[in-house]
Design a protein that fits this description.
494 residues, mainly beta, Methylamine Dehydrogenase, Chain H, four-stranded antiparallel beta sheet
Amino acid sequence: MDHFMPQIFWHDRQGLLSVDLHPAMRNGKYRLVTASVQKEVRVWEFDFEMGLDPKTQEQKPQLTVNFLANLVFHNQAINQVKFSPSLEHDLLASGDCEGRITIWKLSDQPSPPPQDGMPPNNENWLRHKVLNHNSDVNALCWNPAGTQVASVSNDHTLAVHDAMTGKRIFTTSQFRSPNGVCWDPNGKYICTMSPDRKMEIVDAAKGTRLKHFSSAPLPQRSIPSANGDLLLEEKQHKLFHDDQLFSFQRALAFSPNGEYLAAPCAHLELGSTDLYGTYFFKREDLGTKDFPYAFYPAPKPTFLVRFSPITFSLLPSIKENCLGLPYRLLWIALNKDAVYFYDSQHDYPVAVVDNIHLNALTDAAFSKDGSVLVISSLEGYCSFVRINLSQWGEIQTEVYPVCSSPLLIEEKKMKKRKSTAPPPVEKEDEAAKSPIRKPVETPKAATPKVGTPLTKFFKKNTETSSPKSTTEEAPKPSASKSKKRIQLTAVTID
């Protein structure tokens, strides 16, 4: 791997909060979008060209970055930016601390003249739609089709909008300032993470809560760490770090085919020792198990996971296959100081990139071809890691079928319907039905209300009458019964 950090003031030396890469290359160049504590979104392009290294006098790849556009509309710091995965619509979403999400669309029209001394825009991104929350937008993501945006906010809600029309599809509330969200690549689930040490799974079609993970009974096992093996006791453990974790987001992610859900901010308290890392939840176990499938330790708390879109063949020299997949996954886990590279055949980091910035790391993104990783930081600079894929193994070209989903939606819908249904009402005879609604039952000493159905009223009076009444008074002709009922009803009304 090669590391590059160009001396570019991406946002006038202000701290960078988010970065993302476009899913397609144009003219052999990558496109990059950045956002910072300032109010603008900026789009760039970059590529690697062979050039002479002045130190070694050897031909080495050189990074070239060009400015494309400065997008101005937000009034406060922009927490996250994301390109749409749809190449047809070519959209970009940005969410800020004012609760505003702006959907930008690339236009073929010429760009307007530059403002505030900025160079002219080489791309014209028009403001397409504006979506709103009641507080800061902490994180957002696109659905696999690239037409809907899911966002989480400090107004304690998850909202899904149609990016083409701006219409809100649903809102799920009663979160606690969620700051992480991801969309299942198979389109069935939306997952969120919050500082209240909770991860929740939501139905992507209706917004129904399906399941949450907060604590779980973990089996006893020995976990390797930098201080030696640690013994995990068999008891109920809280799974995630609390709100004292310094991070702008808790970026969980699904694997490319959706088999696993990776959740950062893992935190296990083992006596006086804290164990940090990343959990992996198996998709097919989401409906039956309340604990993670695998745990990948890290020296410090992680807050972001990103999967490489490229999968590799299994290494024949390694017998272990921790996740049990027929291919090998590659992903990174980010903490505020370092980037840890993992693959699915090892239970420890296979590579580490650290000491690349003087301030905390904030975000990271893979290119679509998996050969470039871009990392942003509060220092105001971006790092570029160029990955030689051939060194990681043979690229997997076989297409595997989409994995099945557990019956989370059906089970939870039944439980919700049962818990929220009103108490059953006793059925009445057809003769006792009345269009008048039955009021609340009154005490025996109170005067009966007019709206009481007639048959129930007389049954109640008969039961509460004096016990001295004989059985001879009970049998009455049906005609006389109806007359007495009418007369008694009149008396009661008066």
